[in-house]
Specification:
Blueprint lengths: L20 E3 L16 E4 L2 E3 L3 E3 L8 H10 L2 E4 L5 H14 L9 E2 L5 H11 L3 E5 L5 E6 H4 L9 H4 L7 E2 L4 H11 L3 E5 L5 E6 H9 L14 E4 L5 H10 L4 E5 L6 H13 L4 E7 L2 H9 L4 E4 L9 H5 L5 H14 L4 E4 L5 H9 L4 E4 L1 H4 L9 E3 L2 E7 L4 H12 L6 H6 L6 E5 L4 H18 L5 H7 L2 E3 L2 H7 L9
The structure holds xanthosine-5'-monophosphate.
Xanthosine-5'-monophosphate (XMP) binds next to strand 17 and helix 14.
């Protein structure tokens, strides 16, 4: 039967993406790339020193990546395909990785076993634990140095710990703390009140990190910022509560089709209950999608449907919007409401970052480009032609199988359920790339140059001055090295 109200398709919209355009070079007064600021915002109240966010994918962001990204001035969003406890643990690892003063340090009682102390150190990735008595008074400290060659795990903490702990009073400044650590050649300085009760901890590692990463993205307590993804069904609300409890800086409501009643409802419910937490929602690809999420109260919107390197959404469903058009259209309305957008998916090089920001995005989310680094989860695959790491779509079959195993256990998996699953992502490998720091340095370097070509020294200026030129297939060939034989 034919529908009566057929829509007239006399004017089909046009869509373009990064490779369809170039940025027209403009007169530049920038004398050095160092004078270019890459500061931006992630969401209403979170500033970034570099406009790069690592994607909430299980082959990209857990705590190691989030720590690396925040140290460099960006941020990482820990994926949601973990149990609530595991995801919370990842967030805690980031929040504890460095701070001015660790307010609630991990502690242990002198009567616990060495085995338990070792477990705590491994669980939280720390090199020492303050030992306190039943009245919270500091009675010792146990560090990796105390236990290095001690294999008798049944020994008690009190038998192994260092008893003469050097402490400092509340109110000790970071500079005073540094002097005390230096003078006593120690790594950890418990802060105590007048009764000797533990009030916090300052560590040499945190001080060094502060100096090493001056551009780090930090909260008001000097802790690295981190985000976490949540869904819109099942345990999502409980998950949000648990993440907020451990001071996760931003929640990302992340579903493939973010312009949906479910996402809108989830966003308003979370903002209603926890008005202070920053909420990002997505993914959408249209101005109406952005507006509906902004009306629901979100603090940023993630834009990109089917643009990711591992996505097959557009092939499987026929739906999507070419990414540059999606950014241009979405940024226009988001800017009217003063809400930032995050361009998510399809970034292949620093040029794409410049284009996405020039088109109005405040930051870019990156998946596969970071999946090959040391800090991404997963092992390195060694093949005759080189080293690789995995990058897989969160809607790929392999990711779906892993999720089911986690939820139900291997034995309970119903094969027919998996046969019915329609993947919208693929499993892939990306070349191993070494440290995240090096990858990000290249991307930010390219972005700075791109900004300079546009005559811009800030991202706002880039957005005001940028002018795109639509290019032909022949121009795309001209963009690439041509008429030469590449050495590598
Ligand atoms: P890049 O290009 O940086 O893209 O690797 C990362 C983004 O891709 C999205 N994503 C998916 N999209 N099916 C999709 O259609 C999937 O299975 C899938 N997994 C990830 C996501 O937005 C991510 O940030």
């Amino acid at each position: 039967m034919l529908g009566k109200n057929l829509k007239p398709f006399d004017r089909i919209k046009e869509g373009i993406t990064f490779d369809d355009v170039l940025l027209i070079p403009k007169r530049s007064s920038v004398e050095s790339r160092k004078n270019i600021s890459t500061k931006s915002i992630l969401s209403r109240n979170i500033e970034l020193n570099i406009p790069i966010v690592s994607a909430n994918m299980d082959t990209v962001t857990e705590s190691a990546m989030a720590i690396a990204m925040a140290r460099l001035g960006g941020i990482g969003i820990v994926h949601r395909f973990l149990s609530i406890e595991q995801q919370v643990r990842e967030i805690v690892r980031v929040k504890r990785s460095e701070s001015i003063l660790i307010e609630k340090p991990i502690t242990i009682s002198p009567d616990r076993s060495l085995e338990e102390a070792k477990e705590l150190m491994a669980q939280y990735g720390i090199g020492g634990i303050v030992v306190i008595d039943e009245n919270s008074r500091v009675v010792g400290i146990i560090t990796t140095r105390d236990i290095k060659f001690e294999e008798r795990d049944q020994l008690l903490v009190k038998d192994v710990m260092t008893k003469d702990v050097i402490t400092a009073p509340e109110g000790t400044s970071i500079y005073e703390a540094k002097e005390i650590l230096k003078a006593n050649k120690i790594e950890k300085l418990p802060i105590v009140d007048e009764f000797g009760k533990l009030k916090g901890l300052i560590t040499a590692k945190d001080i060094v990190k502060r100096e090493e990463y001056p551009e780090a993205c930090k909260d008001s307590k000097g802790r690295l910022r981190v985000g976490a993804a949540i869904g819109v069904k099942g345990d999502y609300f409980e998950r949000a509560e648990a993440l907020i409890q451990v001071d996760c800086d931003v929640l990302v409501i992340d579903i493939a089709h973010g312009h949906s009643d479910l996402a809108i409802k989830a966003a308003s419910k979370i903002k209603e209950k926890f008005s202070k937490v920053e909420v990002i929602a997505g993914n959408v690809a249209t101005p109406q999608g952005v507006k509906d999420l902004i009306d629901a109260g979100v603090d940023a919107v993630k834009v990109g449907v089917g643009s990711g390197s591992i996505c097959i959404t557009r092939i499987v469903t026929g739906a999507g919007v070419p990414q540059l058009t999606a950014i241009l259209n979405c940024a226009k309305i988001a800017h009217e409401y003063n809400i930032p957008i995050i361009a998510d998916g399809g970034i292949r090089n620093s040029g794409d970052i410049t284009k996405a920001l020039a088109a109005g995005a405040s930051s870019v989310m990156i998946g596969s480009l970071l999946a090959g680094t040391d800090e991404s989860p997963g092992i390195t695959i060694i093949r005759p032609d080189g080293r690789y790491k995995m990058s897989r779509g969160m809607a790929s079959l392999a990711a779906a199988i892993d999720r089911k195993i986690r939820e139900k256990g291997l034995e309970e998996i119903d094969e027919s359920e998996l046969l019915e699953y329609v993947p919208e992502g693929v499993e892939a490998m990306v070349p191993y790339k070494g440290k995240t720091t090096e990858v990000i340095a290249k991307l930010v370097g390219g972005l700075r140059s791109g900004m300079s070509y546009c005559g811009a020294s800030t991202i706002r200026e880039l957005q005001e001055k940028a002018e795109f030129i639509l290019i032909s297939e022949a121009s795309i060939r001209e963009n690439l090295p041509h008429d030469v034989k590449l050495l590598y």
